[in-house]
Amino acid sequence: MSQYPCTITECPRISRALCYCCKNNYCIEHLKDHNDIYLSQLYQLTNDINKLSEYFRGQYRQQLDQRRHESHKTIDLYYEKKCQELDNKIIPNEILNQNRQVIEWIKLKISQLIREQNTTQEQIDSLKAAINSVKREIEHISKENFQLNIPSLILDENFIQIENFNLNSTIKSLFLTKNLITNNSIVMTNNSKYFLINQQLNLCLYDKNLNIIKQIR
């Protein structure tokens, strides 16, 4: 039986296990707590890598998503404009206005009967007949007076161009950057074209592709 006390301050229990990670002794209760600390870090790492994965995908889709939202907005504005034009043509129509008034009267009548909780089959049949009559008349007017010409929306597959990037060049740049960093180098100054780096007591000038241009010993 272990005679080592638990590492946790003020814990009176005898240790039951040695953690090979931190080389500390823990009782059963605090061993579980200690392990939970590692697990919580793993959970946090899982969240971090998932967020990074979403960010990675989002970086490439951000422009497409922005264009999609802008296109939806343009379509919605166009739709509202055409709705207004359609309303402007319908409102002056006397027959349609009469039917609109009948519809409003039917709605009020139905609401009244529901509110009073008192109706007869004769009233229901009368309302059904009125609704069917208005429906037939509206359908007839729509066919005779309003014909919407709505062509299909055709998208050009080449409307959005996706250009390829040089993956080999990117990987080369990453490895070169890593190599520079691991050689105790210090970036002295830089601009859009060049890097001036103090590398192993040598002053080196690199271009943006990390090709060495000049070296002063």
Proportion of residues in helical segments: 55-70%
Unreliable stretches, pLDDT < 50, 5 or more residues? none
Provide the number of structural domains.
3
Relative strand content: 5-15%
- Please tally the helical runs, counting DSSP H or I stretches of 4 or more residues: 4
* Main sheet overview: 4 strands, antiparallel
Report Rg: 38 Å
- Write down the overall mean pLDDT: 79
What's the N-to-C terminus distance?
65 Å
Quaternary organization: single chain
The total count of strands amounts to 6
Shape: flat
* Structural class by sheet pairing and helices: alpha+beta
The neighbouring-strand order within the major sheet is: 3-4-5-6
What is the string of helix and strand elements? EEHHHHEEEE
